[in-house]
Amino acid sequence: MVVARQIKFPSSYSIGSLYAAPDSQPESWQLLEVPQGLITKPENQPINWEWLDEARGTIEIPSGLKLKLKISPAATEHLDALEDLPEDCLHTLDMSRTQVHDSHLEHIEPLGGLKVLELAYTAVSNIGLEFVARLGALHTLGLTNAAISNSGLPVLGALSNLRELWLNGTLIDDEGAEHLVPLKKLRLLGLSSTQITDQGLLRLAEIPDLMRIYMFNTLITEAGARELRTLLPACRVKWRRSQQVRPEFMDADDADLLLSEDLDLDFDRDFRLEAMEDDRFWSLIDLLDWDQEGDDHKVIEPCVAALSKLSERDILAFEEALSAKLYKLDAKRFAMNIGKEAYRGKDHPFSKSWFLNARCCVVANGRESYEEVLQNPENMPKDLEFGALALIAPEAFKRKTGDDMCHCAALSKETFSNFNGWAGN
Fold first, then answer.
1. In this model, does residue 411 exceed pLDDT 70?
2. Which has the higher per-residue pLDDT, 417 or 272?
3. Which residue has the higher pLDDT, 244 or 290?
4. What does the angle CA 298 – CA 303 – CA 305 come to, to the nearest 5 degrees?
5. CB-count exposure of residue 77 (10 Å: 0-12, 13-18, 19+)
6. Of 343, 337, 328, 327, nearest to 424 (Cα)?
7. Is the pLDDT of residue 393 over 90?
8. Alpha-carbon distance 146 to 340, whole Å?
9. Of 149, 160, 198, 203, which residue is least crowded by CB atoms under 10 Å?
């Protein structure tokens, strides 16, 4: 491994998880121009982020990689650490589904080289966009279900490099569509579950490079969509007539007004994924075959097989539930009770991966064991691990779809992600 650079985060706590992907992997908006026959080539796949390390201490970054930082929900009050990062060290900053609000965004202003900013499902409002508009290198901005209205959009005109913008579930209407016209380089635009009508839709024809617009659950009509297609022949509109439907539960049968052989990319930005409910999750965990102990893959096989028969959304919901349970166990009081690898203070060696695998062992032992450990950390398994548990969802997803699972759970399972669990470390 050739180390190209180092990034330094606070040494006493983690602010999130760091992911990496090859520099050569293209952005989603770039794939809109890829002929369908080439989409199966590795260099034409959407970015596949792989976990690199927790955002804590000094991290060595191999050459040829771009980085994504997913902020931990528990680290929202410690975002001043971002001010000490090099301007161009991050490709993507994901603050979605955290408690971040407008004042926190002053800490991202030094990240002038940032390419992608995700603020979905946050309390960020028009005021916060003043900080966002200073990030001149941004090409992708996610504001799904943020507190954005028409009056906040004009400042985004400063983002002259913006190619991809998600405003699903915001408070904008036709007036807001007017404010998007200066974004002449936009390729991909998400406006689902807004109050935009045909009038606003047709204003978007003044954005010459638009290739895809998502407008599920809006007020547009078939006539309006067809007229836009006439004005922008290369632009594909995905839409459905307005219904009383929550945007996160859109079906796949939405009206599609261009050729069926056109490239179709849907990146699941229109729904909020909930964790699998407990009874269902634990019933799957109970399928682990401990008669096969010694061969971890055989132990998890019944669970993988059962999960792979469910929907893709169910598989991701299982991963959300597992990550949330492992997150709860990510605390010093549990780490101090895992046997000879126990945490003994920041000045002593401690294996983050072993502690993750030890936490997996707790969950693998079933619901009763998990709840007992939560109540009494001294019941943590000693010198035992079952890291194979983390393979269940990825293997089920691969078996179901033939593709690798690329999903970032709302709560990270990685060690030191739970800031409150390590407070005072």
1. yes
2. 417
3. 290
4. 85
5. exposed
6. 343
7. yes
8. 46
9. 160
**DSSP letter at 261?**
T
Pairing of strands 16-22, 50-54: antiparallel
What is the spatial distance between Cα 22 and Cα 165, in angstroms, rounded to a whole number? 23
Distance CA 367, CA 363 (A): 7
Distances, alpha carbon 46 to alpha carbons 13, 211, 298, 397, in Å: 31, 17, 31, 17
Q: What is the pLDDT of residues 129-181, one digit of tens each?
A: 999 999 999 999 999 999 999 999 999 999 999 999 999 999 999 999 999 99
Q: Is the Cα dihedral 53, 59, 60, 63 positive or negative?
A: positive
Token pair recorded at residue 333 = 């009081």
SS3 of residue 224 by DSSP = helix
Domains and CATH numbers, the chain: 3-256 (3.80.10.10), 278-422 (no CATH)
Distance of CA 30 to the CA centre of its chain: 19
The reply to whether the predicted model has a pTM over 0.70 is: no
Residues sharing a CB contact under 8 Å with residue 26, sequence separation 6 or more, in sequence order: 34, 43, 44, 46, 47
156, 162 Cβ separation under 8 angstroms: yes
Q: How far apart are alpha carbons 347 and 75 in whole angstroms? A: 23
Q: Considering the chain, what is the average pLDDT of its residues? A: 86
What DSSP assignment string belongs to 1-44? --EEEEEE--SSS--EEEEEEETTSPPHHHHTTS-GGGTTSGGG
Q: How far apart are the C-alpha atoms of 144 and 122, rounded to whole Å? A: 9
Burial class (CB in 10 A: 0-12, 13-18, 19+), 346: exposed
Among the listed residues 367, 280, 361, 275, the one whose alpha carbon sits nearest the alpha carbon of residue 322:
275
Structure-token pair, residue 97: 């589904």
Chain center to CA of 175: 30
> Residues 176-221: pLDDT tens digits?
999 999 999 999 999 998 999 999 999 999 999 999 999 988 889 9
pLDDT (mean) for 286-312: 92
On the question of pLDDT at 270 being above 90, the answer is no
